[in-house]
Specification:
mainly alpha
């Protein structure tokens, strides 16, 4: 039992790191754990989703901090400029796509930069990431 919690905790950490600026491979960790068949799939999906959502909110917080320190959007990289424009035009709904590679981190950063309402943002980010991890679990189950 203790080994199980350690391994599930490792999934959480992998998911958290994968959703911050640092690269990670939480999808591979989840796929491996689902394929192993030793864990409740629902638990794995929820743990990965929560970890990834909290990591995204860390990136969100960096956006909030950056907006206070550097309020001029021209200081952003081209990738983050694109994400900023998407979030400006689509609003909170764009955060459903925070699970996408490369642009997802930029969307979360832009959401913080634009000071979108935090509770709806958390919900949208969580739902997008839940969909991705559920799909991965379904494929490997």
């Amino acid at each position: 039992m203790q080994d199980t919690w350690f391994e599930v905790g490792a999934l959480f950490i992998s998911a958290f790191i994968s959703s911050t600026i640092a690269p990670g491979g939480s999808e591979a960790v989840l796929a491996y754990m689902v394929d192993a068949g030793q864990y409740q799939i629902g638990l794995l999906v929820i743990v990965a989703t929560i970890g990834n959502t909290l990591g995204a909110m860390t990136t969100w917080g960096l956006g909030v901090f950056a907006a206070k320190k550097f309020p001029v959007a021209s200081l952003l990289s081209e990738k983050k400029q694109k994400a900023l424009n998407i979030v400006k035009s689509r609003g909170i709904w764009s955060l459903l796509f925070s699970w996408l590679p490369i642009i997802g981190d930029g969307l979360c950063f832009a959401g913080g930069w634009l000071n979108l309402p935090i509770v709806p943002a958390i919900i949208m980010i969580f739902l997008g990431k839940l969909g991705r991890y559920a799909a991965i679990a379904w494929v490997f189950a």
